[in-house]
Amino acid sequence: MNMATRWRAAGIITASVLMFGLGASSQTQEPPLVRFGVITDLHYADIDPAGPRVYRDSVAKLEACVRTMNAERVAFLVELGDFKDQDTPPVESRTLSYLRTIEAAMAGFKGPRYHVLGNHDVDSLSKAQFLGVVENTGVAPPATRYTFVSGGVRFVVLDACHKADGSDYDRGNYDWTDSNIDAPQLAWLSSTLAGSAEPVIVFVHQQLDGTGSYYVKNAPDVRRVLERSGKVLAVFQGHRHAGAFSEIDGIPYFTLAAAVEQPGAENGAYSIVEVGRGGGIRVIGRQRATSRTTTR
User: If we measure between CA atoms, which residue out of 175, 202, 173 comes closest to residue 190?
Assistant: First the structure.
């Protein structure tokens, strides 16, 4: 029994016409359950470029994204981490000013907005400092992992900015190659998925679909929780700037391209995501972002 069939049997999906390659013609496809906007790895800072990273241009890139999302009237906008960057060496007051500047650009979105913690968000700040500047609509600080429902889909935001001993990344006390979903959060994830009446999409900064420096160290444990739930439609992640895609045990993992790469507001990378009523995912890439459709 595939996932869409299980959802219909459980009453999670009741539509008779399924979307994105599940037997419906273009004339009979129903509107998606939800459409949302996503961007990642803006790395904003008022510093000179380093290789392909053009830090100052990220404000204009985010503003272009926000204009598109407002025009498209998406349900919400989420950024997947590494929202800001810093000087070398870092100066706390300047780092906070970069965060305020890029958050002001995101605040132009006329709807709920959400943030995922990335390693650079806490490279010289605490998680509390970061969360004290940004808005996660309807989510009270100091929550770094949280869940919300939009359009009949549950969205789960994970915080992989933990060291192997479970401690938080904090004010530069971290190793970006040592990212983990801590034990209490893994238990929370399992409980959240078990209690969800809705299909689920997961947001995380560091990658869950492999092993190595870019990946969450206990990613296999996290994937087992996702797979056993039978409810996860997709995982969206950032961190690897080139972007990627994989599918493991029926769950697609979309790694979105970094917005910070390449000069000019026209060289951003952001996407509109449509969640189909049959569980399919359509990613509509804008600028340098890749488009892709998956089916159930």
Answer: 202
